[in-house]
Design a protein that fits this description.
The protein has 74 residues and is an alpha+beta fold. It is built from 1 helix and 5 strands; from the N terminus they run E-E-H-E-E-E. Strand 1 and strand 2 form a beta hairpin.
Length: 74
């Protein structure tokens, strides 16, 4: 699952691939945004943890995992 998090006052977005489902990620985002003093904490496929203060989250885009294509298309 590809997740993009926009952080306020920064030009780049945080992009990570997670093994969690869309519903699990949405529940984490909802819980984090309810408390403006809290944090949004996500873990990627490699076990790295990303923590963003809830007050700084501009947007969250939850997409599907994009499978890489190998070879040439004719």
């Amino acid at each position: 699952m590809e997740v993009k998090v926009g952080v306020a006052d920064t030009a780049r977005e945080l992009v990570l691939n997670s093994s969690q489902s869309q519903d699990e990620i949405e529940a984490l985002v909802d819980a984090a945004l309810k408390d403006s003093a809290g944090t949004l904490s996500l873990v990627d496929d490699k076990g790295r943890r990303f923590v963003v203060p809830s007050a700084r989250v501009a947007y969250v885009e939850i997409g599907t995992a994009d499978s890489r294509r190998v070879g040439f298309v004719t």
